[in-house]
Amino acid sequence: MKNTKCVICGSNKLGFYRLHVQDGVICHSCLKGTPIGEYGASLAEHKRSLAAFWGSRNTSKDFQALTNAGKPVDLSAYK
């Protein structure tokens, strides 16, 4: 994974927490401050699992659509 780049910003500095989506990886900087990023960075295992599950089912375009909408993301629907 050393040559992997973020599908949102193109950075190759992915950081400690990154989200794998269907079409690549989203870096820590792009996730920071987003509801999905907060779930993924949570210390609660079930919240991290929900973020990972969401990423496995969605693409970077889905992530951008959710974050651009400016509304809270309810990941509990993915349980």
Write a brief structural summary.
The protein has helices spanning 28-31, 35-40, 45-57, 60-69; strands at residues 19-21, 24-26. It is mostly helical.
How is this structure best described in words?
The protein has 79 residues and is mainly alpha-helical. The chain has one domain (1-68). 42% of the residues lie in helices and 8% in strands. It contains four helices and two strands. Strands 1-2 form a two-stranded antiparallel ribbon. A hairpin with a 2-residue loop joins β1 and β2 (24-26).
How many domains? The number is 1
Mean pLDDT: 83
Question: What structural class is derived from the secondary structure elements?
Answer: mainly alpha
Distance between the termini: 29 Å
